[in-house]
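Materials and Methods. Structural model of Antibiotic biosynthesis monooxygenase. The 104-residue sequence of Antibiotic biosynthesis monooxygenase from Streptantibioticus rubrisoli was retrieved and submitted for structure prediction as follows.
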Amino acid sequence: MFGLMVRFTCKDESAAAEFDSLVARTGEQIRANEPGTVIYTVHRVDGRPLERIFYELYRDRDAFEAHESKDYVKAFLSAREQYLASTEVDRLDFVSGKGVDVEH
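The predicted structure was written out as tokens:
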């Protein structure tokens, strides 16, 4: 398993709404076209309306690379910058969990 946790901070509330729309459109494509993407979730942060947390879990590094190579992901990566004040990325090394069938 290979994962990411990403914290995005949007520029303002208007940018956050546009970012959420971009995320929704991209998420539809991820769900439809990426069997190696095990979890791709987006969360609003309670009490911090401009922040979004992404939790991404991929079957393996190859599935992540396949995700990154998709045209719709490249479009997302390019378009998102206009809405964001900051981005923090943590790469995750899976240890254990519930709800995911994992061969380790």
